[in-house]
TrEMBL record:
Transmembrane segments: none annotated. It comes from Suillus subaureus. Residues 14-189 form the Integrase core domain. PANTHER family: INTEGRASE CATALYTIC DOMAIN-CONTAINING PROTEIN (PTHR46177:SF1). This is Integrase core domain-containing protein. It comes from the Eukaryota.
Length: 241
């Protein structure tokens, strides 16, 4: 029986309805690990970070907290199962339920099965196609020529000190380019077409709503999270849902 492609539509209510996060281990053989957060409705990349680990819940949480401090908070977060995402899940639910007691006893996070967290998987696929080959060849050359021994602790630490800031700078440039470039038109796509940054910042121009939870005066540490959020979701947004 022929294997036929079955298309499924990804749907989101509007901007900041959902943040999808995911990790990638394609450079783990070099001692490098990647993590990303996506706003699926607009296709806006919230962050792409490289570090020597993507399994530390506190580190992953710091990516999320840095983002919502600058861009406000989504209604729901989404990720693959795993303890590495518990920091984001717990912090997001605590902030939501702290300011809306009606949410007590409910879940503001979606756990997706492996490979079902679609939007970050698409982001990783595009990164592997557009960004990875040239940089991977540089890293492979160092290993193949014997310049870098992944089993030597000192060399690994020096490699991290030199290459992680450089790669992060390149990833930031890639993120900025993707966020400011309109994606190719796709007649099967039900979400808005356009430049991700414009859709994210001006959803009303695309006939969409913004579900972000606005905040004021947020400060935090890894062990302590001091916050003062204010819910500012408009009634029209609630009625739409």
């Amino acid at each position: 029986k022929a294997q036929c492609l079955k298309r499924k539509h990804f749907w989101a209510a509007g901007v900041n309805d959902l943040f999808a996060v995911d990790q990638h281990d394609m450079w783990l053989r070099f001692g490098l690990a990647l993590h990303t957060g996506i706003e699926p409705f607009s296709g806006h990349i919230m962050w792409i970070h490289v570090w020597h680990s993507n399994r530390n819940p506190q580190l992953i949480l710091s990516y999320y907290l840095d983002t919502i401090q600058n861009l406000d908070m989504p209604m729901v977060t989404q990720s693959d199962p795993g303890t590495k995402n518990y920091g984001i899940v717990n912090a997001h639910m605590m902030l939501q339920q702290w300011h809306d007691p009606a949410l007590q006893g409910t879940l503001q996070h979606c756990w997706m099965q492996s490979k079902k967290n679609v939007m970050p998987e698409i982001t990783w696929s595009q990164l592997c196609h557009r960004f990875t080959p040239s940089f991977e060849s540089i890293l492979d050359q160092g290993v193949n020529e014997g310049w870098y021994n992944t089993n030597n602790t000192l060399q690994v630490m020096v490699f991290h000190w030199v290459f992680i800031p450089w790669l992060q700078c390149k990833l930031n440039a890639y993120q900025d380019r993707i966020n400011n470039t309109a994606k190719r038109c796709d007649r099967n796509k039900v979400l808005p077409h356009g430049v991700p940054n414009l859709i994210y910042e001006l959803p009303e121009d695309f006939g969409a709503l913004d579900f972000k939870v606005c905040h004021t005066n947020v400060s935090f540490k890894f062990q302590t999270l001091t916050h003062n959020f204010q819910i500012t979701i408009e009634q029209a947004t609630i009625d739409h849902v």
